[in-house]
Design brief:
The chain is about 25% helix and about 15% strand. The strands form 10 sheets. A 3-stranded antiparallel beta sheet has the order 19-20-21, with no helix packed on it. A two-stranded antiparallel ribbon has the order 1-5. It has a two-stranded antiparallel ribbon with strand order 2-3. The chain binds heme C (11 copies).
């Protein structure tokens, strides 16, 4: 009894799954096949695709026509009678069908990250299988197709006070992402964001109107072999938002733009990861940068005309000094040495800002004014 029910259910299910072409379902084969004395021949009344266009709107009317459609080979993809797959397809799924002729895309689908709509919605989420007016028969122009499903990123990119030109230039989103699949998180083209960023930031960039120069980062990293924190593992997006931001230099949190700034804890992205205590308290042991207990971070940074971290540190990469202390600091075109010399319990500095001064955590240094 149970076996019979299972058998019946299987039959019903397979029937329910089957897509039957309505003209075939009528049983009147002569709709498409030539009638003969003893039934119907395999010969068709009209050749494909004209046969199909008797009942269907033309599929080759838009600017860019898919080669098999242009050739009129509807039956390369469709079974004219019935199929187990939606749209009478001749493969177990639409993706299987498409990649049977596009092995390069098949390879991308084997990558560790596949773009969810490719898997969940199949190729026709973005491509028309027949003809379209846009390049690659995309349903929207190539530079806009991503906006169809990621309006939040579009809005973010366009509304950010500081826009990242990378999103708008050349290939838009495709400058950084693969639309099908990749071996890297977030479908980016390279193993880590750093390689992606440096593929463009390998030259001086800038906006001449406001004399705002953006340095050659690839060169900067090549000359300074000691990358700071997240940059050691290529994670530029720990601090920067690749799609743009309201903060200076498309940062994920604020950072002052000049050499001096009135101190406030909220104004420094650094405190996302570092302890702010030495900057808030005049006396502390929470930092190595102190003379006795006097916090020299507090002295330099916590005032109305506070010195911004970049006068002393390079958080992208430094040369050889401990604590990512810079060799040189720059004020516009003036470049001068910090002459930083670490000692066992402190260090010395001899910048242009003041005479050579020292600090020592154990035996405070007396620095004459
Ligand atoms: C909507 C049009 C249409 C109808 C209706 C139709 N056929 Fe076909 N049939 C075709 C086309 C087109 C081909 C050629 C398929 C190809 O090129 O792969 C074909 C091919 C065939 C073949 C050759 C083998 C094969 O499957 O490719 C047989 C047999 C056949 N049809 C039988 C039938 C029978 C029997 C009926 C009626 C129950 C029928 N067809 C109804 C369009 C139709
Ligand atoms: C006699 C009219 C007729 C002819 C000839 C015909 N079709 Fe159809 N076809 C239909 C009807 C009716 C439907 C169901 C309504 C619809 O989807 O338009 C349909 C549906 C389809 C579908 C959609 C099935 C689905 O599940 O979404 C495909 C694909 C299709 N036809 C392909 C073809 C191809 C390829 C040919 C030529 C080999 C062809 N048809 C010839 C009448 C026809
Ligand atoms: C490269 C494979 C391919 C070829 C060649 C092809 N189709 Fe399709 N067709 C598809 C796929 C895939 C779908 C399903 C699209 C979807 O789900 O959005 C489809 C859907 C359809 C549909 C139903 C939806 C609609 O767009 O109306 C019809 C009818 C149809 N095709 C007819 C044709 C005809 C007629 C031809 C030949 C001129 C043809 N197709 C050639 C892949 C193909
Ligand atoms: C029967 C083989 C066949 C099938 C199935 C097929 N294609 Fe194609 N496709 C071709 C051929 C041939 C070309 C033109 C040659 C080329 O440029 O690669 C082409 C071109 C393309 C192009 C443009 C490539 C370019 O570089 O301009 C896209 C996009 C595409 N197909 C997507 C699809 C999608 C999506 C499907 C599934 C709905 C599909 N193809 C199914 C044969 C096929
Ligand atoms: C999320 C949207 C989207 C989906 C889903 C999608 N594609 Fe694409 N496809 C694109 C875009 C965008 C391009 C243009 C890529 C470029 O210019 O770098 C493209 C380009 C192509 C090309 C031509 C360029 C190349 O890399 O060979 C083919 C072929 C192609 N797609 C096939 C497919 C197939 C097959 C599927 C389903 C397995 C599919 N696509 C699913 C967006 C998509
Ligand atoms: C048809 C809808 C659709 C289109 C078009 C589309 N996406 Fe997606 N995308 C999704 C969905 C659904 C997800 C998974 C949910 C999410 O992360 O938003 C996703 C996720 C992503 C992710 C995150 C992947 C991860 O590993 O977390 C990236 C990156 C992405 N899409 C980029 C793009 C780019 C670039 C384009 C344009 C080429 C694009 N998408 C076009 C639907 C789409
Ligand atoms: C400059 C390179 C670059 C460009 C251009 C770019 N992205 Fe991204 N995108 C990334 C990186 C890197 C990540 C990973 C961010 C992270 O992990 O914090 C990402 C993450 C994403 C995600 C995952 C969700 C998220 O916010 O982390 C989506 C979706 C996405 N991008 C879509 C897009 C779309 C749509 C466009 C075009 C409007 C675009 N991207 C342009 C580099 C880029
Ligand atoms: C496709 C090329 C390209 C890629 C990839 C790219 N950028 Fe850019 N980036 C630019 C261009 C162009 C500018 C604008 C320069 C200008 O304003 O003249 C820019 C500007 C910037 C700026 C300064 C923004 C401002 O508001 O002044 C920062 C910071 C930046 N990029 C960081 C990154 C990071 C981090 C990555 C990697 C996630 C990255 N970029 C990837 C092309 C790129
Ligand atoms: C720890 C946070 C952090 C990380 C990680 C980081 N940056 Fe930055 N980046 C900043 C800050 C803060 C600024 C703005 C300060 C300034 O230039 O005065 C900046 C500025 C920039 C600028 C503009 C440079 C200029 O000359 O004004 C570029 C380009 C840039 N970063 C690229 C990158 C790239 C590429 C990576 C990854 C290799 C990266 N950043 C990693 C914090 C970071
Ligand atoms: C006047 C130069 C100068 C300025 C400005 C400066 N630092 Fe420092 N910083 C140092 C020196 C020197 C050390 C090394 C102390 C030592 O000998 O261990 C240091 C050490 C550090 C350390 C290592 C932990 C510690 O406190 O010993 C961190 C983290 C740090 N600084 C972050 C910052 C941040 C964030 C800013 C801006 C808000 C900043 N620094 C501003 C000179 C400076
Ligand atoms: C996303 C987290 C993160 C952010 C944001 C960040 N850092 Fe760091 N920082 C680290 C990590 C992790 C280390 C330890 C590895 C190293 O020494 O590079 C570190 C180390 C340092 C050191 C050396 C500490 C020592 O004990 O020698 C200094 C100096 C420093 N950071 C300054 C900064 C400054 C200035 C900023 C803001 C522009 C900043 N960091 C923002 C994660 C971060």
């Amino acid at each position: 009894m149970v076996a019979l029910i299972v058998f019946m259910a299987t039959i019903l299910l397979s029937y329910a799954q089957e897509v039957v072409h309505p003209p075939f379902q009528t049983g009147d084969c002569s709709i498409c096949h030539v009638k003969t004395q003893d039934g119907y021949s395999e010969a068709l009344t009209t050749k494909v695709p004209d046969l199909c266009y008797m009942c269907h709107t033309r599929k080759d009317q838009k600017k860019i026509v898919h080669n098999p459609v242009k050739a009129g080979n509807c039956t390369l993809c469709h079974d004219p009678h019935k199929s187990k797959t939606q749209a009478l397809l001749k493969a177990p799924s639409q993706n299987d069908l498409c990649v049977s002729c596009h092995p390069n895309i098949k390879k991308l689908l084997a990558k560790s990250k596949v773009h969810p709509p490719v898997e969940l919605m199949s190729c026709s989420a973005c491509h028309d299988p027949h003809s379209e007016d846009h390049e690659f028969r995309l349903k929207m122009p190539r530079k806009e197709i991503c906006f169809m499903c990621h309006p939040d990123i579009k809005e973010h990119a366009e509304k950010s006070k500081n826009k990242h030109a990378a999103v708008f230039m050349r290939d838009g989103c495709l400058n950084c992402h693969n639309p099908h699949g990749a071996d890297h998180p977030k479908l980016i083209h390279t193993a880590v964001p750093k390689d992606l960023c440096l593929s463009c930031h390998n030259k001086i960039m800038g906006r001449e109107e406001d004399g705002d120069i953006i340095k050659n980062m690839a060169e900067h990293f090549a000359l300074n072999p000691n990358p700071h924190g997240p940059n050691q593992w290529g994670d530029c997006v720990a601090c920067h938002n690749p799609h743009g931001s309201d903060n200076f230099r498309i940062l994920k949190a604020p950072f002052p733009s000049g050499h001096y700034a009135k101190f406030s804890q909220e104004n420094y992205i650094c405190f996302m990861c570092h302890d702010p205590t030495p900057f808030l308290e005049k006396e502390t042991e929470a930092s190595g940068f102190r003379n006795g207990k006097l916090s020299l971070h507090w002295v330099h940074v916590n005032k109305d005309k506070g010195i911004v971290c970049g006068a002393c540190h390079d958080w992208h990469a430094s040369s050889g000094n401990p604590h990512h202390i810079k060799d040189y600091t720059e004020f516009g075109k003036i470049k001068f040495s910090l002459n930083y010399v670490p000692t066992e319990n402190g260090g010395f500095c001899g910048p242009l800002c003041h005479p050579r001064r020292g600090y020592d955590r154990v035996k405070p240094v007396f620095n004459p004014r």
